[in-house]
Amino acid sequence: MKWYYWLVIAILVVVGISTLVPAPGSPSNLIGYSSVDPAAPISGIILWVIAGAIYWFGKRKEKKP
Fold first, then answer.
1. Mind listing the pLDDT tens digit for each residue in 4-63?
2. Residue pair 14/48 in contact by the 8 Å Cβ criterion
3. Most buried one in 7, 12, 27, 42, CB count within 10 A?
4. What local confidence, expressed as pLDDT, does residue 24 receive?
């Protein structure tokens, strides 16, 4: 896979994790605690699914001649 696929995957994974960081004073999210992103579990999962799809498409493209 090209280096830019890995860069985008790493960025999406880090941003997905950063949405779960606790932030006092923020509104409660769907899990029930205050985090940086009020839609924390859903947005993190969406970012990780996109990262997985980029990985899958990159590996798939690598196999084609």
1. 999 999 999 999 999 888 888 888 888 888 888 888 889 999 999 999 999 999 888 887
2. no
3. 12
4. 86
Whether the pLDDT of residue 65 is over 80: the answer is no
Residues in the chain, how many?
Answer: 65
Q: Residue 12 burial by CB count (10 A; 0-12/13-18/19+): exposed, middle or buried?
A: buried
CA distance 46 to 48: 5
Q: Residue 34 region, left (φ>0) first, then alpha (ψ -120 to 50), else beta?
A: beta
The strand pairing partners of 22, in sequence order, are 35
The residues, ordered by sequence, that sit 6+ positions from 63 with a Cβ below 8 Å of its Cβ are none
Q: What is the pTM of this model?
A: 0.84
